[in-house]
Amino acid sequence: MNASTYSPDWTTNAGQLVVTPVIYANQTAIALSNQALTITWKRREGSGSEAVLAAGETVSGNVLTVNQNKLASVTSGLLTYIAYVAYADPDTGLTINAVADISFALIRTGENAKSAWISGEQVFKYTAAGAVSPAQITLTANLQNVTMGKWQYKTSSGTWTDYPTTSDNANITGTTLIVKPTHAIWVGESATLRITTSDNSIGDTTSIYKVTDGATGGQGNPGQNASVVFLTNENMTFAGTKDGKVAATTKTCNVVAYTGTAKVTPTVGTPTGMPSGMTVTVGSASNNEVPLTITIAANSTLDGSGQLNGVVNVPITSPVSTTLQIQWSKVNTGASGTTPVVFSLYAPQGTVFNNGEGSLTIQTAAYSGTTAISSGATYAWAKYTNGSWATISGQTGASLTVNGSDITGMASYKCTMTYSSKTYTDVITLIDKTDNYQADIDSTAGDIFKNTVGQTCLICRLWQNGAEVDPLKSTIYSATAPSSPATGDFYYKIDTTTPVTALMRYSGSAWVDVTSNATYKHEKTYKWYRRDKDGNPLDNGAVFATDKVIYVDGDDVTVKTVFVCEVE
Fold first, then answer.
1. How is the chain split into domains, by residue range?
2. pTM value?
3. CA distance 103 to 54
C-alpha cells in the first residue's frame, strides 16, 4: 500500500495476466486452434452481473490477456473471468458444453508487506519408452516489496546450493528459471528448489517430480504399474490482522496415492517443519486417503508479526518413498484496508473419478476478511448442462456430494452464496477418467481360406483395464442347437446364408432367440464393416452385420477382405 504498486503488475510484459484454457474431450487434449472449439469470455466484478470484456482485456487464439491493472478500479476487490466452452464432437455431431472461471482478489497489504512465491508446473512425465513431457518447466518467482536473490536447489546431503548455470539459465538471479530433466539437481526422482530475496526471512520453496509409466514387459509380462502420491491441497494461505495475528483456523488436506489406476492407502510419517502456533495431525485412512488436519491456534503470529511463508514436510514411505510439502503463507491486511469477502469451491478428495466409480464432495470456503463465514449465508447449486446452468433441486447446503455415475467425461458445478444481501459465485469442474477400451477380433478358423473355400466365426471381444467387458455368453457357434441343454444355457445360432447370428437361450422347454431381449442380450452394440484388399469400403460403406459373433465364408472374401468392428 505504501508504494502504491501492484504485484504482479499487469501493465508490464512480464507481469501481464495470461489465462489459458486447457480443454479435454473424451480424455483427449483439444488444441485451442481446433475449428470445432468455441470459447466465449465474460467478466464479473464482485457479485455483479456478467459483462463483456473491457478495454485492456483481449482474446487471441482463445487465450485471454489482461494488460491493465483492472483490480485497481473494482470496488469489491474481486474480479472473475469466465470461459464458456462449446466443442462440436466430430464423432457424435453433438456439442459438448463446459464452463470454468478464475477469480482474482486485490489484497491491500500493510506497510512494507513482503512476500515471495514460486509458480509453475511440478511434474515431468515419462512414457515406458523413456520419452519425457514437457521437455522443460519454467518456474516464476513472484515478488512483492522484495528484490530477487537467486535460485538454489537442495543436494542429497540437504545443503542448499546455487542452481547450475547453463545455457538455459545464464543468470540464476532472474525471476524465471528453466528446469530440465537433464540438469544436475535431482535427488532420486525429485528436486527441491527455492528462491532467496533481499529479505532473508522471505522466500519460497517448491518441488519437481519425475513420474514414470510402468515399463512394457515381454510376452506374459505386462510390466509394472507406476505409483504416484500427492496432496489434495498443498498451498494454504492464512489471513492475519495488521498486527500479524491469525484467528483460530482449521484446514484439511488429504494424502492420495495410486498404483496404476488402483487407489491405494499411502503410509504417512510424522510431519515436520511447522512454525509455532501450527500443528499438523495425521488421521486414520478413509477411502484409502490419509487426512492431514492443519490447526492454527488463536492469535498465533506463526513465528513473527510480518509477512511469512514456509513449508511443512510430509514424509511418505509407500507406495513410493518421497516427501510431500505443504506450502503455507500468511498475508497481513493493512490498517486502512477493506474487509473483502472471498468465496471459492474446492474438492477435498480431488476432482477426478476413475471409471465413474464412487463419489466426491464439493466444499465451499468463504471468508469475510480473516473470519470464516460459518453462519448467515445461503447456498444454491447448479450443474452446467446443454449450454446453460440447471439448478439442482433441494441442494442448499455448504457442500455437495456428486456421484461418479453423474459425470460423463467432465461436468461443471456452480455454487452461489448469498451473504449480507450480496451474492458470490464460484465454479468447479469434475472429471471422469475412464480407462480406454480395446477391441480384439478372434476367428474360430484362422484368417486364410484356400481356393475360396472356408468358413469361420468372427468374434469381437472388448477389454477395459485388463478385464473383459460384455463377454461371450457361450463358446458354442452352430447351425443346430446343442443337445441335452440345461435351463439358462446359451449358444450362438448361425445362419450360413447370411452373416447374421442369433443369441439363443434355453428356457427349460425350448430354445428362445434373446438377441434383442433386454435381460439377456449383450450390453454393447456391434457394427461390422468390410474393406477390400486396397482398403476401400465394400457394401457401399453400409453395415455388413450387427452381432458380437458373425458368420463368414468364402463368398464374403475376394482375394483379401478386412473386417472392421465398431463398438458402441
1. 1-108, 339-434, 437-567
2. 0.36
3. 16
